[in-house]
Amino acid sequence: MTVAVPSPDLATRTLQLVDVPSESRREAALVDLVREVMPGVPAYDDGEVLLYGDGPVVLAGHLDTVPAQGNIPGRIADGAVHGLGASDMKSGVAVMIELARAGAPGRYLFFTREEVPVTESPLPALFETGMLAGAELAVVLEPTDCELHAGCLGNVQARITFHGESAHSARPWTGVNAIHELVRGLQPLVGREPEDVELDGLVYREVVSAVRVGGGIAANVVPATAWAELNARFVRPGMEERLRALLPEGEIDVLAVSPSAPPALANALVERLRRLVPTVKPKQAWTPVAQFAEQGIDAINYGPGATAYAHRVDEQVPIGNLERCFETLREFLA
After folding, report:
1. CA trace torsion 122, 127, 132, 136 (10° rounding)
2. Which of 1.10.10.10, 3.40.80.10, 3.30.1130.10, 3.40.630.10 would CATH assign to domain 10-152+261-333?
3. Across residues 21-33, what is the average pLDDT?
4. Could you report the per-residue pLDDT of 163-185, keeping only the tens digit for each?
5. In whole angstroms, what is the distance from residue 170 CA to residue 193 CA?
6. Which listed residue (27, 48, 88, 114) is catalytic?
7. What's the chain's average pLDDT?
8. Does 64 participate in catalysis according to the annotation?
């Protein structure tokens, strides 16, 4: 039986969440804990998504984390909560829980499987129910250092393959080395600079990186194939076509695409939130604001997590950020 944590002891609540392992696809225990500590009965509960409350504002947070790096259980020390998911984003979930327990009006949405490809997201099942009808703004409590991070980058995962002809490595001239073809074929990527794209006065950077590489079967065989995985971040449509134009020598297969999202700064509720949080930056990453935008729901990122510590072995969140985020959102929702 979980011991109740007095509201608003945000640090203790965050640590409580950190100490329940919830790596992507293994979040059931944390889903159970959220059910236990949230006031009332969820309006929607399919075991992967919990939705509470009503009103024009949706507060949204994912329950999963990246794999542990020896950083669980957590601890409270030096003015911060340390441990897996403390920044991304159990601190944001803790703020949501305590706001609900304090009676702040709004819809509270908790969901699993965010740190994996968007094709695994459980949110589409909720969207199909129409239960978010009437929502005017979603605030996603991703780590933003208590600043507003508007919009988000889209994400393309792709594999590029180069073909050659196998041969004995003692007589390489009798074949074509696919790894050498890969090295030559990736040169346009190596020399590519980030491209700045301005939207609503915010500058996003479109980038492409090789993130994994492979090829070859043995030390004495010239390889017939070699491949690299690519990751591209974008705000403009057409990134898949731009990838193929950049790297014409390889065979590109797109593995997954996550959409970008516009800044939504003209939304009246965002303007109200900006009066409380004047610092606005572009979100140089993908977040679920894109999934809300696809549903016609404006969304913005605002949370207590420390962006510099997300996914690190020394992940942590300053307690001051927890308190600041809680008070700001309580005033915003009032």
Report:
1. 100
2. 3.40.630.10
3. 98
4. 999 999 999 999 999 999 999 99
5. 38
6. 114
7. 96
8. yes
